[in-house]
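Re: the 250-residue chain
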Amino acid sequence: MIEEVPQSATGGAVYRRILLKISGEALMGEQNYGIDVNVARTVAEELKAVNELGVEVAVVVGGGNIFRGVSKSAGNMDRSSADYIGMLATVMNGVVLQGALEKLEVNTRVLSAIDIPHLAESFIRRRAIRHLEKGRIVIFAAGTGNPYFTTDSAAALRALEIKADIILKGTKVDGVYSADPMADVAATRYDCITYQEVLERQLKVMDASAISLCMDNDLPILVFNMRTPGNIKRVVTGEAGVGTRVCVEK
């Protein structure tokens, strides 16, 4: 288990390096499609606040607000082709988030698993780590660069490659529940849950491949509500009662 670091080492934060996973839908706001620039700006402001604590921040953003390989819009398209289109959607979201961060004068780099040199740097693990060490926010785009793998799997993979202390999974609910809290008022929230319980109960935290990868490498996950202002900073500073922690033991 990666130990949390003394708060004095990182300006009040309990982690040195984090990977934030946010869905493409998180950038839609109240829209039905696309990107709400106001939401992107709000996310950027929160990331800046965390970065200013001295925390090294990496981000994996999905593309579901534009195109998802397994969505109805993909129709009967070949799965590999559809997934590649979804990867391009994550690059678009990454560039939008980069723009919002740079307007706040935060040094940011987009690293893509697919070579698109006019928009992003190619992903190289050591280069990503060097950017983080220099205090830049790193946005990983294009998933793993391979079809049939979700951006959840990309988040787990990249977090392990850069030796992140934790994955922060931003959602629209305030943690992991026994059932869908939007559909079941009796659903109860867990403060802490094991990887095995997530898999056995088929709780939709991240896909099974991502959960298994984190479990095999003892990488903790914290699921929290992205829509509550200031929550990213609360999580990073170790505030109690925010979100659900997924780990080996309770």
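The first helix runs from residue 37 to 51.
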